Amino acid sequence: MQTLTPEATLTAQTTGHQLPQLSHARNPGMALDLDWVASVQANTSAIERRCATLGGRRSVKKDFQAAWLLKAISVIDLTTLSGDDTEGRVERLCAKARQPVRAEMLEALGMPDLKVGAVCVYHDMVETAVKALEGSGIPVAAVSTGFPAGLSPYHLRIAEIGESVKAGAQEIDIVISRRHVLTQNWQALYDETREMRAACGDAHMKTILATGELGTLRNVARASLVCMMGGADFIKTSTGKETVNATLPVTLTMLRCIREYDERTGFKVGYKPAGGISKAKDALVYLSLLKDELGLPWLQPDLFRFGASSLLGDIERQLEHHLTGRYSAANRHAMG
Predict the structure, then answer these.
(1) 116 is a domain residue
(2) Catalytic residue among 115, 206, 236, 291
(3) Measured between alpha carbons, how far is 57 from 288 in angstroms, rounded to an integer?
(4) 20 assigned to some structural domain
(5) Angle at the Cα of 27 (from 25 to 32), degrees rounded to 5?
(6) Which one of the listed residues 96, 272, 282, 302 is annotated catalytic?
């Protein structure tokens, strides 16, 4: 079993949350390069073999594990996207975002000011979240553009972005039109992404690919590249509403596209796996893969996020076990 380096442990001390303060130049996008897109392939069997070994090749224990779990908390987009969301629920979620782990535990771990990366809500709850998070430095992310299917009239999808930005959202999670990928209409996907990026203005745009509906890893890779060319600040796996959400093979595919884009253009793009990541041990695997493929710069909130809610509760349980040697009941770590 191999242990991750102490160098990575130190990254848990960094919690910079206000997204305009980037550690890198913002991706401006580029002209659509169809030759580059056509050249992108994905060796599915090799990708799946690599991912099948990840859980066994990486193991972190004791203080190292605690540090990595604290890092995971700092990059969580704490999310509620339910039809029965209320202002009270969002306010409680925001309180949890401000204080993700019990204060005495954070003091004992030497991280009293730890916060999550962002709070993600529907447009109707943006103003509530902004008010509840005032002064915390935690940005509000709004899902937009006809989330989750992205099938509402196009002009309304663009207008929805503007309304969320006006309401105070600093990040916009947009959904692409899956049909453009399935029909290989890369020009249409590029044009759509460019227009949505323009509508976001200074707000950062996370482009949701809905990878579970794209059919192949090659489609995932090509869609990732086109969206980055279109100016995406992040590429994101899923809405969380698909049958298949974030997976390790999809993650490896997207991370390698990010690396190639950075190597060719000099611009870093963030990554956000979303949906289905609910256990602390899974978060550790994703973080180790991220470090292996992209390095330490991507272990910060401006380049990596988990789209999750229940994940935080399990991490809190693991941290309590680290401090006390005992596991507590899950209901002691509610979201609000």
Answers:
(1) yes
(2) 236
(3) 10
(4) no
(5) 150
(6) 272
* pLDDT tens-place string over residues 107-137: 999 999 999 999 999 999 999 999 999 999 9
- Paired with 15 in beta bridges are none
Active site residue 272: yes
* Active site (annotated) includes residue 236: yes
Is 13 within the bounds of a domain? no
Q: Which of the following is catalytic: 77, 173, 233, 314?
A: 173
Domain residue limits at 54: 30-333
Report the CATH number at residue 310. Answer: 3.20.20.70
Q: Is residue 272 domain-resident?
A: yes
In a 3-state reduction of DSSP, which class is residue 174? Answer: strand
Residue 290 to residues 64, 176, 264, 322: CA-CA distances in angstroms? 17, 24, 19, 24
Phi first, then psi: give them for residue 78, nearest 5 degrees: -70, 125
Structural domains of the chain, count: 1
- The string of pLDDT tens digits covering residues 130-151 is 999 999 999 999 999 999 999 9
Looking at the whole model, is its pTM more than 0.90?
A: yes
Q: Which residues contact 233 (CB under 8 A, 6 or more apart)?
A: 26, 27, 204, 205, 206, 269, 270
The H or E element containing residue 207 is: strand 204-208
Cis bond upstream, residue 139 (ω within 30): no
